[in-house]
Amino acid sequence: MPPVTEEELRDFVRVAVTDDGSDGQTAPLVVDEFVVGTEGRIDLALVGDALIGYELKSDLDTLRRLPQQMSSYSKVFDFCTLVVTDRHLGGARRALDPRWGLAVVRREAGKLTYKQIRKARPLRRTDAVALAGLLWRDEALHALDLLGAAAGLRSKPRDVLWERLAQVASQDELRAIVVRALTARQGWRDVQARREYDETFQYAGASSRFLARRFRPQYR
Fold it and tell me: What's the CA gap between 92 and 38, in Å, rounded?
Protein backbone atom coordinates (compact mmCIF):
# COMPACT_ATOMS: atom_id res chain seq x y z
CA MET A 1 0.00 0.00 0.00
CA PRO A 2 1.52 3.38 -0.97
CA PRO A 3 2.55 5.77 1.82
CA VAL A 4 0.32 8.69 2.76
CA THR A 5 2.17 11.77 1.53
CA GLU A 6 2.22 15.22 3.09
CA GLU A 7 0.19 16.77 0.25
CA GLU A 8 -2.62 14.24 0.27
CA LEU A 9 -2.72 14.22 4.06
CA ARG A 10 -3.09 18.01 4.14
CA ASP A 11 -5.78 18.05 1.47
CA PHE A 12 -7.76 15.31 3.19
CA VAL A 13 -7.49 16.72 6.72
CA ARG A 14 -8.45 20.20 5.53
CA VAL A 15 -11.81 18.83 4.44
CA ALA A 16 -12.23 16.47 7.38
CA VAL A 17 -11.81 19.13 10.10
CA THR A 18 -13.53 22.13 8.52
CA ASP A 19 -17.15 22.87 9.35
CA ASP A 20 -19.29 23.38 6.28
CA GLY A 21 -21.36 26.17 7.79
CA SER A 22 -24.54 24.10 7.63
CA ASP A 23 -25.31 24.92 11.28
CA GLY A 24 -25.78 28.58 10.34
CA GLN A 25 -22.39 29.70 11.59
CA THR A 26 -19.82 31.34 9.36
CA ALA A 27 -17.21 28.94 8.03
CA PRO A 28 -13.82 29.55 9.67
CA LEU A 29 -10.83 31.01 7.91
CA VAL A 30 -8.50 28.13 7.06
CA VAL A 31 -4.79 28.95 6.88
CA ASP A 32 -2.17 26.67 5.40
CA GLU A 33 1.35 26.90 6.84
CA PHE A 34 0.34 29.31 9.61
CA VAL A 35 3.51 30.98 10.89
CA VAL A 36 3.83 31.34 14.66
CA GLY A 37 6.33 34.17 15.17
CA THR A 38 9.85 32.93 14.47
CA GLU A 39 9.30 29.59 16.17
CA GLY A 40 7.50 27.44 13.65
CA ARG A 41 4.78 26.95 11.11
CA ILE A 42 1.81 24.77 11.91
CA ASP A 43 0.30 22.87 8.98
CA LEU A 44 -3.31 24.03 9.31
CA ALA A 45 -5.04 26.67 11.41
CA LEU A 46 -8.73 27.44 11.77
CA VAL A 47 -9.53 31.01 12.77
CA GLY A 48 -13.06 31.52 14.05
CA ASP A 49 -14.75 31.24 17.42
CA ALA A 50 -11.51 29.62 18.58
CA LEU A 51 -7.94 29.49 17.31
CA ILE A 52 -7.40 25.84 16.40
CA GLY A 53 -4.18 24.32 15.11
CA TYR A 54 -3.51 21.01 13.37
CA GLU A 55 0.00 19.59 13.03
CA LEU A 56 0.25 16.79 10.45
CA LYS A 57 2.70 13.90 10.26
CA SER A 58 2.60 11.87 7.06
CA ASP A 59 4.23 8.50 6.47
CA LEU A 60 7.27 10.38 5.17
CA ASP A 61 7.67 12.59 8.28
CA THR A 62 9.21 11.98 11.69
CA LEU A 63 8.22 13.05 15.22
CA ARG A 64 11.66 14.51 15.92
CA ARG A 65 10.50 18.12 16.03
CA LEU A 66 7.22 17.43 17.84
CA PRO A 67 8.32 18.55 21.35
CA GLN A 68 9.49 21.93 20.06
CA GLN A 69 6.38 22.31 17.90
CA MET A 70 4.05 21.57 20.81
CA SER A 71 5.82 24.16 22.96
CA SER A 72 5.61 26.84 20.26
CA TYR A 73 2.07 26.25 19.07
CA SER A 74 0.61 25.92 22.56
CA LYS A 75 1.57 29.56 23.15
CA VAL A 76 -1.03 30.94 20.74
CA PHE A 77 -3.73 28.36 19.97
CA ASP A 78 -6.79 27.61 22.08
CA PHE A 79 -6.78 23.98 20.91
CA CYS A 80 -4.24 21.86 19.01
CA THR A 81 -4.51 18.42 17.44
CA LEU A 82 -1.81 16.17 16.06
CA VAL A 83 -2.90 14.15 13.02
CA VAL A 84 -0.70 11.17 12.19
CA THR A 85 -0.66 8.06 10.08
CA ASP A 86 -0.47 4.61 11.67
CA ARG A 87 3.30 4.71 11.36
CA HIS A 88 3.49 7.40 14.06
CA LEU A 89 0.51 6.50 16.24
CA GLY A 90 2.45 4.66 18.93
CA GLY A 91 5.11 7.34 19.23
CA ALA A 92 2.48 10.08 19.25
CA ARG A 93 0.63 8.43 22.15
CA ARG A 94 3.83 8.41 24.19
CA ALA A 95 5.08 11.90 23.34
CA LEU A 96 1.97 14.02 22.98
CA ASP A 97 1.02 16.77 25.40
CA PRO A 98 -2.04 15.50 27.31
CA ARG A 99 -4.04 18.57 26.31
CA TRP A 100 -3.44 18.06 22.60
CA GLY A 101 -5.95 16.13 20.55
CA LEU A 102 -4.88 13.11 18.50
CA ALA A 103 -6.27 11.73 15.26
CA VAL A 104 -5.12 9.10 12.79
CA VAL A 105 -5.53 9.01 9.02
CA ARG A 106 -5.47 5.56 7.39
CA ARG A 107 -5.60 4.33 3.84
CA GLU A 108 -8.30 1.67 3.74
CA ALA A 109 -9.50 0.02 0.54
CA GLY A 110 -7.77 2.74 -1.44
CA LYS A 111 -9.43 5.61 0.45
CA LEU A 112 -8.29 7.78 3.33
CA THR A 113 -10.24 7.73 6.59
CA TYR A 114 -10.05 10.09 9.57
CA LYS A 115 -10.46 8.79 13.12
CA GLN A 116 -10.25 10.95 16.21
CA ILE A 117 -8.41 9.18 19.00
CA ARG A 118 -8.90 11.86 21.63
CA LYS A 119 -10.35 15.35 21.68
CA ALA A 120 -8.23 18.43 22.20
CA ARG A 121 -8.63 20.21 25.52
CA PRO A 122 -8.14 23.96 26.15
CA LEU A 123 -4.43 24.73 26.32
CA ARG A 124 -4.70 27.71 28.68
CA ARG A 125 -1.08 28.65 28.15
CA THR A 126 -1.42 31.52 25.75
CA ASP A 127 1.70 33.70 25.58
CA ALA A 128 0.52 37.29 25.12
CA VAL A 129 3.57 38.46 23.16
CA ALA A 130 3.48 35.39 20.91
CA LEU A 131 -0.23 35.94 20.31
CA ALA A 132 0.34 39.61 19.46
CA GLY A 133 3.08 38.45 17.10
CA LEU A 134 0.44 36.98 14.78
CA LEU A 135 -0.42 40.56 13.78
CA TRP A 136 1.16 42.45 10.95
CA ARG A 137 2.82 45.67 12.03
CA ASP A 138 0.05 47.95 10.76
CA GLU A 139 -2.56 45.78 12.49
CA ALA A 140 -0.70 45.98 15.79
CA LEU A 141 -0.34 49.74 15.49
CA HIS A 142 -4.03 50.12 14.67
CA ALA A 143 -4.93 48.07 17.74
CA LEU A 144 -2.71 50.26 19.92
CA ASP A 145 -4.38 53.35 18.45
CA LEU A 146 -7.79 52.02 19.44
CA LEU A 147 -6.51 51.36 22.94
CA GLY A 148 -4.98 54.84 23.19
CA ALA A 149 -1.53 53.34 23.65
CA ALA A 150 0.28 54.17 20.38
CA ALA A 151 2.04 57.36 21.53
CA GLY A 152 5.74 57.28 20.73
CA LEU A 153 5.54 53.94 18.96
CA ARG A 154 4.77 54.81 15.34
CA SER A 155 8.35 54.42 14.16
CA LYS A 156 9.19 51.47 16.39
CA PRO A 157 9.83 47.95 15.06
CA ARG A 158 7.04 45.44 15.19
CA ASP A 159 8.37 43.47 18.15
CA VAL A 160 8.13 46.61 20.31
CA LEU A 161 4.51 47.03 19.21
CA TRP A 162 3.75 43.41 20.09
CA GLU A 163 5.25 43.78 23.55
CA ARG A 164 3.32 46.98 24.20
CA LEU A 165 0.08 45.44 22.99
CA ALA A 166 0.62 42.45 25.28
CA GLN A 167 1.04 44.88 28.19
CA VAL A 168 -2.01 47.07 27.64
CA ALA A 169 -4.61 44.52 26.45
CA SER A 170 -6.13 41.80 28.58
CA GLN A 171 -5.78 38.29 27.23
CA ASP A 172 -9.40 38.22 26.10
CA GLU A 173 -9.05 41.63 24.42
CA LEU A 174 -5.84 40.58 22.69
CA ARG A 175 -7.33 37.34 21.43
CA ALA A 176 -10.34 39.23 20.04
CA ILE A 177 -8.02 41.74 18.36
CA VAL A 178 -6.01 38.97 16.71
CA VAL A 179 -9.04 36.99 15.53
CA ARG A 180 -10.67 40.13 14.13
CA ALA A 181 -7.48 41.12 12.28
CA LEU A 182 -6.90 37.68 10.80
CA THR A 183 -10.45 37.25 9.57
CA ALA A 184 -10.56 40.77 8.08
CA ARG A 185 -7.14 40.60 6.46
CA GLN A 186 -7.03 41.16 2.70
CA GLY A 187 -4.36 40.51 0.09
CA TRP A 188 -2.72 37.44 1.58
CA ARG A 189 0.66 36.87 -0.02
CA ASP A 190 2.51 33.68 -0.76
CA VAL A 191 5.18 32.58 1.70
CA GLN A 192 8.21 33.59 -0.36
CA ALA A 193 6.87 37.02 -1.25
CA ARG A 194 6.05 37.77 2.37
CA ARG A 195 9.49 36.61 3.49
CA GLU A 196 11.21 38.92 1.00
CA TYR A 197 8.92 41.78 2.01
CA ASP A 198 9.72 41.33 5.70
CA GLU A 199 13.46 41.12 5.12
CA THR A 200 13.48 44.27 2.99
CA PHE A 201 11.08 46.43 4.99
CA GLN A 202 11.54 45.64 8.65
CA TYR A 203 9.17 48.38 9.86
CA ALA A 204 6.68 48.61 7.07
CA GLY A 205 4.61 45.59 6.52
CA ALA A 206 3.82 42.32 8.14
CA SER A 207 4.80 40.16 11.04
CA SER A 208 3.85 36.76 9.76
CA ARG A 209 3.86 34.87 6.49
CA PHE A 210 0.79 32.94 5.53
CA LEU A 211 -0.85 31.07 2.74
CA ALA A 212 -4.53 31.51 3.42
CA ARG A 213 -7.90 31.16 1.87
CA ARG A 214 -11.49 30.80 2.92
CA PHE A 215 -12.51 27.21 2.42
CA ARG A 216 -16.05 25.85 2.55
CA PRO A 217 -15.73 22.12 1.82
CA GLN A 218 -18.26 20.02 -0.02
CA TYR A 219 -18.65 16.79 1.91
CA ARG A 220 -19.14 13.61 0.00
Answer: 24
